[in-house]
Amino acid sequence: MKARLNLATAPVEGNRRFAVGAATAAVVAARNRLRDPVFIGLGALVVACLALVAALVATRKGAPVLPPIQFIVTTLDSTKPVASFPWPAAISPDGGTVVYSVAQKTASLYALRTGELVPRPVLGTANAYQPYFSPDGRWLAFEMGSKEWKARLDGSAPVAITDAGGANGGTWTTGNEIVLGSQGTFTGLSRVSAAGGTAVALTRPDTAKGERNHLWPLATPDGKAIVFVIWKGSLANAQLAVASLGDGKYAGLGIEGIRPLAVLDGMLVYVKADGSVMAVRLDVAGKRVRGVPIPVHDPIAVVSGLNGNSEIYVSQGGAMVTSVGGSSGRLAWLTRAGHATVITPAPAEYALARLSPDERRIAVLMNENRQSDVWIYDLGGGTMSRLTTVGTVTSVDWTPDGSRVVYTAAVQGGNDAFLQVASGGVPPERLGEVPYAMVGATMASNGKSLLFDVSPQSFWQLAWASRDSSQVIHTYLAAAANFHAATFSPDGKWVALVSDESGQDEVYVRSFPDPSVKMQISAAGGEEPTWSRDGHRLYYVTGTTLLAARITTAPALTLAGRDTVLPNLQQPAFADVYFYAGYQVSRDASRFLTALPDQNDYRLVVAPNWITELRRKVAEAGGQK
What we know:
The chain is mostly beta strands. The protein has two domains: 8-325 and 603-620, TolB, C-terminal domain (Neuraminidase, 6 Propeller); 388-580, TolB, C-terminal domain (Neuraminidase). A hairpin with a 5-residue loop joins strand 29 (349-355) and strand 30.
C-alpha cells in the first residue's frame, strides 16, 4: 500500500503507501481539480471514447492535429478506483488501457480496455502497487510482496522478475530491461532483464555531494538513457539528472524536479515540489536541457511527507492519467454490536484520529486545500480548533498525560518530530530531525521513549530515541523488510508492529528497547495493531475482521488465543492506515473511535491524447528549441 495510499510504501527511500498511494502515511493531499473535465457517466461511453481515441492515437503520424480529450472514468462500486501510490493509475502507450487499484480492503489491480464495457481484474495482483507498461503495451510491471512482477492482461498468472519493493519508481526500456529506483541494497538505480534475474547497480549516489538516493527512473525513447531524481533528503532540493544505460555515468540537469514523467517529442515532462507540471527540451546525448522550462498542465497534488508520490502518470505515448476528488467522513463511535454514533456532524477529509488519555478530546489530522494539519476536537463542547499551521503533518499522537501532542511534519527541507501543547499558544518543541523520510512518531507511557517510522534506505524501519536526548536516533528494527504501524504497550516494555518479513503483512509483538524477544500475533495476514488500556489484549485487522489477541507478558510473552470483535469492519474514511491503526479502543473496550465514510468522489481523469495539448503549449512557447 496494504496499497492504500503513498502513504505507499516505502517512500524516501522506500516509498510506500499514502499510497494512497500512497502513500506515506501518512497523509495524502486533497486532490486538485482540473479545469472543466468532461464527465462521462456511463461505462459504455467511456469505452467508446477510449476506442476512438486509441484509433486516432495509433494513426497520430500524418493525421490532423486533434483537440485534447479528457474524461472522468466512473465504474460500479465494486470496481471503483482507490487512491494508490506512487501514482494514481497507469495508462498504456497508445492510451487504450488504464490500470488502477480497486476500492476494496485488499486492493487489486483492474484494467479498463478499449472494446470492453467493464474493467477486468488483473489476476494475482492483491496488494500490488506501482504499475507501469512495457513500451509495446503488451505487459504490465508492478511491485508486490517485495518483488517486481510482470503480467499480461489476458488472465495469465504474473511472473516474478526480481527482488524489489522500494516503490521508488520503475521503467521498462526499449532494450527490454527494467530499471528500478532505490530499493533493497541499492541506494542508486538498479537494472535487470525484463525476462527475470538478479538486479545489478546502474548508478551510485555521490554522497560527497549530499546525494542519498536515486529515484523515479524514466527511460528515454531511444533506450539509451535514464532520466531520474537525485534525492538529498527533501522535495525542496530534489533535482533531475540523466544517466547513460551503457556505463551508468550521470549528470545533473540543473533543474529542480521531484519526478520525471515522460520524454515526448524531445521534451522532458516532469513534476516540481509545488505540483507544477513542467516541460523542457532535453539533449540526451549532451546530458543537459535547452531553453527555459514551461508549465504544460494545471498543478497536481503532491504528498508532502514522501519523496515524489503525486497524482499524475504519463505514458510513453503521451497519454495521461490524473485524479480529482477525494474521500470524506465523520468521526464516530462504533460499538461491538456494530452500531455507530456520529461525533462530528460535518464531513471532512480526515487522515488520522487519536483519543486523548482522559477521552475528552480527539487529536485529528485533516486535509484542506492540499494541506494537512492537527486539529483538536473537544467532545464536551463539540468544538473543533486548529493546532498546527505547517500544512505537512503526517502523524499525531498524545503524550501519556494528555497535555501535549506529538506530531511529525516535513518542514524547512527536513523531516522532524515535534511536541506541542494541546491548547496551543506556545511554539512547538522540536524532538528529533532526520535527513530522510519520517512519517510517524509515538511516545511510551512513561514519557521517556519515542518510536519513529523512518526510511533511511529502501524499506520502512523503526527507530527510537530517549526523551532526554531525542536528537540521538537509535535503530530499533532494520532489515530487508518493512516495519511499520508500531505502538507501545501500556507498560512501555513491548511494541506491537506490522512487518512483511514473511512475504505478507503480519502483526508481531517485540520486546523494547531490545527487540530480540518476538512473537507473531496474526495467522493469516494482519495490520493496524492497537493495545487495550490494560495491555492484556492486542486488537488488529485481518481483511474486514477486527480481532483481539489475548496476551500475557509475564512470566513470558504468551498468546492465549484470538477472539473476533467485529466480523464486518467498515473501511475507515482515512487517507491511509499503513502507518497506524484506523481506529482506537475506548478505555473500557466497549466502543471504537473511527471515521465512517461519508463521501468518496475520488475519480480518475483520463487524457488519452494529452500529447496534443503538450504540443500546443510548446508551440505557444516558441518551440523551445
